[in-house]
Amino acid sequence: MNAPPARGWCPSLMTPMEAGDGLLVRIKPRAATLTAEQAAGVAEASGRYGNGIVEPTNRGHLQVRGLAETGIEDFVRAMADIGLAGTSPRGEAVRNVLADPLGPDDPAARFDSHRLARRLSDVLESDPALHGLPGKFGLLVDAGVALPLAGCTADIMVRSGGDGAVIALDGGDRLLPLPLSAVEDSVYRLLTAFLSWMKGQGRRAAASAPRMKAMVAANGAHGVFRAAGLDGETRPDTGPGEPAKRPLPGFVPIADGPRGYFLSGARFGGLESEALAELAKLARTFSDGTIRITPWKAVLSWGVSPTDAPSLRDRAARAGFIVEPDDPRARIVVCAGRPRCASAKADTRSDAAFIAATGSVPEGPLHISGCTKGCAHPSPAPVALVATAAGYDLVRDGRPVDPPERTGMTQEEAARALAPTLDLASSASGR
Ligand code: SF4
Predict the structure, then answer these.
(1) Residue of the CA atom closest to atom 6 of ligand 1
(2) Which of ligand 1's atoms lies nearest the C-alpha of 400?
(3) How far from 13 is each of 56, 413, 421, CA to CA, in Å?
(4) Which residues' Cβ are closer than 6 Å to ligand 1?
(5) How much is the CA Rg of the chain, to the nearest whole Å?
(6) Per-residue pLDDT reduced to its tens digit, 270-294
(7) For residue 242, is pLDDT > 70?
(8) Which fold, 17-84?
């Protein structure tokens, strides 16, 4: 690589972003799956060239933090050597395809979501006609029955349905049922229709990187399908119903079979490179040799036998992962915070650790956000603590931008607001 990689506000591997703790890049494993060798390679390189913090993202990517200017090119080269780099910065930027974690290993899945996700990733990367898509534009492929993509959305979503698949659009109220053989071509048509629409909005509107939601708002889902030349009969999208619960850490056997999956939660959204290296070893010993990145701040090991699950749990716990479903830390969703993000008004991860230790974590996700942007949990949460220059604000049943119920609290006041009967003196002595 001769020229230094470009900087980007929506980072990918070849377009690093400046963050509070150095340069940040995102690795995008195809079908959100890494081999044990690739995971070990990411662990080694993130410790060598970055600050050793790796974060699974809600799009099935791995965010590597704290890279130095001088090490970025070597890091990209190291990722290329293990098959985790695309062939061009633009192809890499638009290759955003989330897949359900089990893919073809889900015994009830109607189609191989991982195969389709890989195909779509290849098309996005290799076709320059698609490289004008906004960097945040993403696809989702979900055939999961045992472990569907609970609570996840994307600009274009392919899910199981009818005799094959259905396509849903972000913000849309209609689904398009399709035979499986037509899905790839139909997604391509939707992508090109979106690009034409974006072009038609004029240069200024296009520069604002609109998303599918905007095209649906302007034309209706039905209109978008028609613009893509997809004139099959649509049906109402009744939505996901009740908000889906995030899967919890621990072992889950599949359909009374001899194997299951184990979810290892990343403490407060991040994991150290040593922990990722240990997980790579565990994948070779206890699972099918892969690590799947889930959108729930957790990594999945597939093919674990019930007899091996306790050993895997103990070693993952020693490496620093959350492994018990009732661990209060599994109910906290927290963003990078200070010093990792320049916009952060507090060290959210250390405050999350304090609140977890006091035992005041409520049921349902507690969102701790370093500012009102709410990166870690874009949808409403039962309780959100939002850092401001004056302390923490508390928002109930809302997003960080929503009006707070209380404002300007210290760490201790925030813990007491979550559990009014909390005795901080005794919870501190019990820590
Ligand atoms: S929510 Fe704010 S503080 Fe947290 S990562 Fe996003 S921009 Fe940074």
Answers:
(1) 375
(2) 1
(3) 14, 40, 47
(4) 335-337, 341, 343-344, 369-371, 373-375
(5) 22
(6) 899 999 999 999 999 999 999 999 9
(7) no
(8) Alpha-Beta Plaits (3.30.70)
pLDDT of residue 243: 53
Q: Are 140 and 121 in contact (CB under 8 A)?
A: no
CB 140 within 8 A of CB 104: no
pTM (two decimals): 0.88
Sheet of strand 366-369: strand arrangement: 332-334, 366-369, 381-388, 391-398, 406-409
Lowest mean pLDDT among 288-302, 324-338, 393-407: 324-338
CATH of 250-328, one of 3.30.420.240, 3.90.480.10, 3.30.1490.20, 3.30.479.10: 3.90.480.10
* CA diameter of the chain: 66
Q: Is the dihedral of CA 397, 402, 407, 409 positive or negative?
A: positive
Query: Thinking of the domain 97-236, which architecture would CATH place it in?
Result: 2-Layer Sandwich (3.30)
- In CATH terms, the fold of domain 331-429 is Sulfite Reductase Hemoprotein; domain 1 (3.30.413)
Minimum-distance ligand 1 atom for the alpha carbon of 387: 3
Kind and range of the H or E run holding 50: none
Least confident residue range of 96-105, 167-176, 232-241, 329-338 = 232-241
pLDDT tens digit sequence for 106-140: 999 999 999 999 999 999 999 999 999 999 999 99
